[in-house]
Amino acid sequence: MISRGLYVGRFQPPHLGHLEVIKDILTKHDEILIVVAAAQISHTVKNPLSAGERLLLLKTMLDNTKIDPKTYWLIPAADIFDNLLWVHHISRLVPPFEVFYTNNPFTKLLFEDAGHKTANTSIFDREELEGSKIRGAIMNGKEINGVLDEDVKKMLTTWNIEKRLLATVDSTKREQRGTELVKDT
Question: Is the CB of residue 58 less than 8 Å from the CB of residue 34?
Answer without folding.
Answer: yes
